[in-house]
Amino acid sequence: MTASDQALDSLALAVRAADSKGGEDLVALDVSAPLPFTDVFLLVTGNSERNVIAIADEIEEVLREAGAKALRREGHSAGRWILLDFGDLVVHVFHREERLYYGLERLWSDCPVVPVAPLLAAGS
Predict the structure, then answer these.
(1) How many separate domains does the chain show?
(2) What is the pTM of this model?
């Protein structure tokens, strides 16, 4: 199984939104094979609590304008690890220390990486 076109479209919007707010080290993983409830994880690093919140808010706003609705949002008040669940796309916006500590890339290392550079270039 591979990520749906809808998930990839949402991913492209989320990647550009995260980049516009200074999101760093963007990694997208196609988790559609092992997980029945979502297609793609997007991992983003922010450099401060305020930056993490700004990145998450921008992603949520851009996807809402495109017709998507966050089904779940966790961690917004702390600004250390914010999870945004859009159904077929789950976005994890981390503070640098949390990203290193939890190591989601290691946990999901058997899942294919979805290249994000072409998504950024397409938005230019």
Answers:
(1) 1
(2) 0.95
